[in-house]
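Entry 14. Two folds queued back to back today. First construct below, sequence then structure tokens.
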Amino acid sequence: MLNIPIDKKIILFDGVCNLCDSAVQMIVKHDTEDIFRFVALQSDLGQKIIQHLGIDIQKTDSIILYHPGFAYYLKSEAALEIAKNLGGIFYFATLFTILPTSFNNYIYDYVAKNRYKWYGKKEACLIPTKEIQAKFLE
């Protein structure tokens, strides 16, 4: 399909969103098991993955978690799956799975809709530092 590692979980994120950038930096810092790789939704590879998965980008524009050959997750399910994989204190976020997905997605969509207004927006996608560049796919 695409030239992506099948043994890593791929996080597709909004590369111009300051909130998403902060989340990516936090995930990189706490990904002690080296589980994740990152791709901006706006990148060519991000668009190819979205197309391969058949996801309507009109339905989600801020986060997708793709586990190649297994599954993909959108919105709150993606965030909760990432938290579960990070473990530690983040695992407690999985308590939200007892709530209906529709409720979690309502909250998620509200934050996503307002993220640029609340946190701002970059002119261009995040450029990773040399220390974390290997975690980003092109």
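Second construct, same run, same settings:
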Amino acid sequence: MTTAEELRDTTRALLAAHPPASTDRLDFLRARFDAGLAWVHFPQGLGGLGAARSLQAVVDAELAAAGAPDNDPRRIGIGLGMAAPTILQYGTEEQQRRYLRPLWTGEEVWCQLFSEPGAGSDLAALGTRAVREGDHWVVNGQKVWTSSAHIARWAILIARTDPDVPKHRGITYFVCDMTDPGVEVRPLRQITGEAEFNEVFLTDVRIPDSRRLGAIGDGWKVAQTTLNNERVAIGGMRLPREGGMIGPAAKTWRERPELRTHDLHQRLLKLWVEAEVSRVTAERLRQQLVAGQPGPEGAGMKLAFARLNQEISGLEVELLGEEGLLYDDWTMRRPELVDFTGREAGYRYLRSKGNSIEGGTSEVLLNIVAERVLGLPPEPRTDKDVAWKDLAR
């Protein structure tokens, strides 16, 4: 067993061999990965030391105190929070060694090719086809709401490989090279004026069978690992007190007493308490992860995240009055990350509208909580045993 003191010694040895002040950022990150200090709970050789997940905080504290660079986790969140745990669980040894190091260092950005125009809430009804030709799969279809596709090198992709079985059973999971011929990325301009989302068209894209994750037809099972981790990554992120949306609202309240009213005070107090409860609950959820994989509880955290962001940003705009209607820049841009707290209140208000859609719609997550957390009876479904090709569309 690796102890906290052993991790401190390993971290200090890394800092001594690669002083942050004089070491190139990327060289430092690569050295950190190779030392097993990227994800301490990952296996040795894959960025970890097989230690307890809870001990990551020991490493992070030592590195932060030394001014060491991080891997810009907001920019590569899809890779860190979704692709990496899926590759670790289902990838071959060759796949793990090829993808995990440049994923963690940020040298290669990842995106997610799951949702489709005709299969958003009902993801298992997806229609993108993958047909096997020898050692390759030929993929045709369209994906939508793809964050970071415009900067991504790799994508996690699910496609239908067998239309003759029920929808959940005919899906296979792949890693797609976003630079391959036939991959076309188009921007989707949002209400914020930006286009961080994209739609992706796949035309005769050839994916080697060596880039398949899991068995043929097991894509839905593999995708559940991705989706459970996605919800925890979004709703269970580590924040300090007054981190996230509640921070700017509370700051405005303290600094602008002329804007205060009794009603706004009561509403802000309520939301502050809810934000703190959510933050502490997320910490407890992360502690539960030490014992195993994330479960459906992440759906509840993601639900709370979306609702709170929308309510807090609405209160902030109302608190600011006419100032809350100001917006700094409607220029069409394709940003590399979402910055909720680095922009003005108007941006937060508009961008938070997407929180109840991205990472699983709130309606779908309510069903997950009802059925898998509370144990309520599932909704009647008539398509569970019907071949995908025979479904009404």
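Quick look at the second one. Residues 262-288 form the longest helix (27 residues). The chain is about 40% helix and 15% strand.
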